[in-house]
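the two lines:
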Amino acid sequence: MNFCSHCGQTVRFAIPEGDDRGRFLCDACGTIHYQNPRIVAGTLPVAGERILLCRRAIAPRKGYWTLPAGFMENGETTSEAAMRETREEACADVDLENLYTLINLPHIDQVYMIFRGALRGDYASGPESLEVALFEEAEIPWHELAFPTIERTLRHYFDDRRGGDYPLHVSDITAEDRERYLGSA
Amino acid sequence: MNFCSHCGQTVRFAIPEGDDRGRFLCDACGTIHYQNPRIVAGTLPVAGERILLCRRAIAPRKGYWTLPAGFMENGETTSEAAMRETREEACADVDLENLYTLINLPHIDQVYMIFRGALRGDYASGPESLEVALFEEAEIPWHELAFPTIERTLRHYFDDRRGGDYPLHVSDITAEDRERYLGSA
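prediction for all of em together
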């Protein structure tokens, strides 16, 4: 951020009075520009014994497999965001069951929220996917998954499926976790 | 948003190519300025039979009672945000138990996430609170609560306490719900 989005003057980065962290400040109009984490909402679409995955057609991690997920937009709920992303990336509808993983990535200012649900009807590649396919547990391309959040969600799911109970899993991924993961792929 | 925060030129609001919703666009440098919902993280601090509430010293809803909660910051996890807000508003520490309510407010682009936890030690008014106090169920100031998210979280808690089970509650608050609530106070 270089300029004030309100008045167009140059901003500076400093701690505002009464605050305890740096913000972009505009001395011309007095606006404090707050920046906050973003939610990535998605689904874990289940079709019997199989899980739907999408192979990414876009950066980052083009060519790697992911669950359908993306940035939540203004004006929608977390469930709506998850369903919209599933329609966009996999041309698929999902009957949502529960919020299944909530994963904090504080080093990149993201919070993943993946909802478990039943795939309803057909699917196809959306513009952001090279292909979309269903995988049994033994077929999951573990070494070609796009992000550590996706691997973690799938591992929880297959573990939980043995017991038939799918509680919410809340966890964090650190910068080191992510580097180790992306470095190994 | 009037000006590009990257290059300082005037922005326009239009649907980018390949997108399906309006964004602020900079024709000078090509930046698309995305805007996304914010997370409000907080706690439901439990001390035996009583709940800690804070009376707000700042707008909006100055003078009304709330659970300690506020905007999640970059670089932190949802739990860290909830605990930081509790320290700031109530000078209190909480041993978090579980994510208890997740409430979408799509008309104001917010997602509330309230964690249930045990109050540990003392408490006092922080700079954003006029007073901080513990309330039994019969003492809750239902008509002087700051926000519908707070009322809903407290109602879930007292209902669940009768059964001793505290599952995550996911729900939405619409513009109409909120207007009805704030209009009635």
